[in-house]
Amino acid sequence: MIKKLDILVIRAFIGPFIAALFISVFVLTMQFFWLYIDDMVGKGLDTFVILKLVGLVTLQWIPLALPLALLFSSIMTFGNLGESFELVAIKASGIPLLRFMRPLTVITVFICGIAFLFANNIVPVIQLRLSVLKYDIIVTKPAFDIKEGVFYDKIGGYVIKLGKKEKNDSVIHNVVIFEKKPQLQDNVLIAESGVMRITPDKRFLEFIMKNGWRYEEQGARATTNTQLTRLGFKEYKKVFDLKSFKLKESNDSSFYDPKMLSMRQLNMAIDSLTNVDSFYIAKSGREVNPYLRFTRYTDTGMIQLPADSLKHVSNFNQLIPDSVKQQVVDAGIGQVNSIKGNLAVLADDYQERYKSLLLHEIEWHKKFTLSFACFVMFLIGAPLGSIIRRGGLGAPLVFAIIFFVTFHLFNTFGEKFVKSEQMSPFMGMWLSSFILIPIGIFLTYKAMHDSQLSTRNTIIAVSKSCGFFWLILSLQKNHLKIYCMSNRHQGRRQFIKTAGAAGLAVTILPSIGFAAGPAPISFSQQPLPYSYSALEPVIDAMTMEIHYTKHAAAYTKNLADACAAENVNPTAISLENLLHTISKYSPKMRNNGGGHYNHELFWQCMKPGAMGKPSGRLATAIDQSFGSFDAFKTQFSDAGKNRFGSGWAWLVLNGDKKLVVGSTPNQDNPLMDISELKGMPLLGLDVWEHAYYLKYQNRRPDYIANWWNTVNWDFVSTRFDAA
């Protein structure tokens, strides 16, 4: 039965809640305006498309705005009642706080249900429509999607980067355009400024660039005998055909994301993804058994022989005649490499399915966690408002922001933990609730006993919440292990163990590899160990970004293509061993294998703020080999300055364990059997023009002199000690 007290509380709550909801949605939607409104203006988008886009974005934020609105309005409601002493009068009449909170608790539960229905039935449709609309806008108006400092590759055959765009979105600065070519390097256009605009017939995107250079490399394929042409211009017009970017309503089926699924659809998808364990176990047997020939006799009724009838030998080699021993070893190594390759492909496929499963389960739990967050925020806001007894927009807004940011951070952390497989979906997605519920219970207890929040009590409450958080982190690993080994889920590591048991021969045959030495460099490009701007002012950010993402990335990709074309298995041979016998391979393998190895070593040879000298054994060896560190620097710098054309300067530990300095042309290095300079490279310097031309132009000596301030001597010393 609704009483007058309930009506009083509800009336005091409804107004602030509606206002808080509109404010929350507005603030969250403003993020979209901050990011995209400048890009939308002046792009020819009609009003209906803009309003549709803004409307979809607004609806998208409602599930997240509801908890914030409930938190803010509940603090304001109980704060207003406390500030006007109505709350004191109600408590003095013998009515407890929980009874006073009951009508709003019922409304909060109702809002939780509405939030769940909205997230389950409406948000998936919004996500789908929003993805379709954003895609149509982007492909129709490329200028909308070309952001400052970001490479744009939606126009086939080109990659565009703009350093800065003016407010009118037409005047541009620091323009870089890559023209994708099948040759060794892409063509590059660089200009200081220009104008970007779409022609009146909407068919072409024009770039009118001023004060720049065009770089073009010409020459036959699979050769290093190329010619670099550099053309300077005062004005250059580049036209891009946009005939394939006509606006059309894209088919909804072209887009798929777990965020676009309802609970029923997520359950079906999760069920199909979880019932794959038996499939992969059986498939691993089919992939491995052909290489382990003895498995074909497992069901043929083999007769067990008495142990004393078998020949006793001290090792396996005594059973093999010398004439076929090498053939047996080679055949065994081939079988093992094939097993490893097949299992690696199978494990990667399983990992992709497992990651897809995690994404689906994240969305499944998110349907509940965002709606339950409404109740958690009310559990915090109502007692907090009765404690602080402050109404208006001041204190309630401050506390609402603090607790909502806490909720949002832990919610984000939990989702990241799940995606990185550090937490199960259940633990990760409910992490924010686990942290905030104890705080809500603590505040309710304090409010029921009319206690104020002293500093000491606040510290104790925060400490308990942090302790609870660390308890969750300590328990989640065991929980994740159990979760991954359950009937519904099998973790990637457990899968690899199960499937890899069939390839036990990997541990039986002796491994073939290097003697102990520096860690080998992978065939794949590794992340840059610092930001693009970290080495400024020695190496500018644009040079580093182009160098890493374009030149070095091209060597990695072309190396993979060469390996595929020449039947080289990267899992069966190290990159160092391949370079030792590079004369057996094509020029493409030589150029790109060396280019990839050299650049992967080059990134590690530098670090921010690395001014100094080597120490320890390396410093002693340098003094013994060159007389002094300054003499070594002079000799190394001369090797880089005097290298004609493009190439590298090296500090090498040769076969006699002595330090020598030298240089190699193009992308050759001292590991190659065709190189005149041979040994283990410890320190390498790239003296190709693309490594320094944007900042130093033709002043290679200045580049080398400044480069010494970036040398990572700790890394070089580690290579020297391990070699």
Essential attributes:
723 residues; five-stranded antiparallel beta sheet; 8 strands; 56% helix; globular
N-end to C-end Cα span: 84 Å
Which spans have pLDDT < 50 for at least 5 consecutive residues?
A: 246-253, 455-459, 468-517
Gyration radius (Cα, Å) is: 33 Å
- Helix/strand order, N-terminal first: HHHHHHEEEEEHHHHHHHHHHHHHEEEHHH
> Strands across the major sheet, in which order?
1-2-3-4-5
DSSP E strands, number: 8
Estimate the mean pLDDT confidence.
78
The backbone outline, from C-alpha atoms, is globular
**Count of individual helical segments:** 22
Instruction: Tell me the helix content.
Output: 55-70%
| Alpha-beta classification | alpha+beta
Fraction in beta strands: 5-15%
The largest pleated sheet is described as: 5 strands, antiparallel
